[in-house]
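Please go through this chain and its backbone structure tokens and walk me through the local backbone shapes. Keep your notes short.
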Amino acid sequence: MTEQKERNIPAWKSPFVIGWFAILAVVLMVNVFMISLAFSGFSGLVIEDFYEKGKNYGTTIEKNKRMDEMGWDLKVDLQNLKKDVAHESFITLKDKTGTPIDGAKVTLFIYRPSNKAYDFSVEYKPVGAGVYQAQVRFPIKGIWDTIAVAEKGDDVFEIGRRVYVGMLNE
């Protein structure tokens, strides 16, 4: 009979135990990193009256149905935006047959999702048949949410869009 030497290797030197500890250490480091991001980052809630807006959700759905029935076409020209540069912005407004809509009050509401202190709005002036123009200047770079609102009489049409504002050298 051949004798086999028993190998007395401590458990903590086993490759399987070392592997499990390595996996556990990586998972814990990732969790610590994610928790630190959660505490240092933005909560995402900037609307103070979020509860009231949620209660009015049915009204919002009805308003969206009304806008679909109106069939207006509202196009916002916001391209190649740079921080602290005045941009000529144009909005074109047409009805469902393609006829320009004149005499509307057109406003662009601009929201900074991470800080409401930068929120502002711009009134557009009519410059042609269904064309409205304004100067828009973004104070800081980053992602902005815009909502263009056109009102004529009792008819209100709005469209939202997200834009990116870069630095001059980007």
Observations:
- Residues 50-166 form a domain with the Immunoglobulin-like fold (CATH 2.60.40.1930).
